[in-house]
Amino acid sequence: MRFMPGGQGIMVGASFDLDIFFNRDTRRSKELMQRWLVGQEQDRYIDHRFNKVLVRRITGLDSADLQRFMKEYRPGYDFLKSFEKDWDYYKYILESSKFYIADKKRDSSVNTQNK
């Protein structure tokens, strides 16, 4: 604690940037930046866990089918974190690939019937 020169008052320890508390735009932009950074971190985590090498190994899909499957069946962050064991996660990928292949076969049979 120290006294200000000229008897103006007492200054205590830490200083505060009062603009942060009173300036909504600054606070809002910091919140938006924080949300964006958290989203980026979650996307990188999903990319790390749901990658082409792993999905190809589990599903046997390749090239265009692999890319399409990974786009359509990409898990969300919370869903991905909900798997207690890797085996459950791998089972999700395998089961999803079976749905993908069945949908692809159905779509191709519908397209050939319409021609």
Task: Explain what the structure shows.
- This protein is mainly alpha-helical.
- The chain folds into two domains: 17-49; 52-115, no CATH class.
- Helices cover 72% and strands 3% of the residues.
- It has helices spanning 18-22, 24-49, 52-59, 63-72, 77-81, 86-114; strands at 2-3, 10-11.
- Strands 1-2 form a two-stranded antiparallel ribbon.
What's the order of the H and E elements?
Answer: EEHHHHHH
How large a portion of the residues is in β-strands, by DSSP E?
under 5%
| Gyration radius from CA atoms, angstroms | 27 Å
Percent in helix:
over 70%
Order of strands in the sheet with most strands: 1-2
Integer tally of domains: 2
Structural class assignment: mainly alpha
* Uncertain residue segments: none
Lay out the secondary structure.
Blueprint: E1 2-3, E2 10-11, H1 18-22, H2 24-49, H3 52-59, H4 63-72, H5 77-81, H6 86-114
Antiparallel strand pairs: 1-2
Key features of this structure:
115 residues; 6 helices; elongated; mainly alpha
In brief:
The protein is mainly α. It is 72% helix and 3% strand.
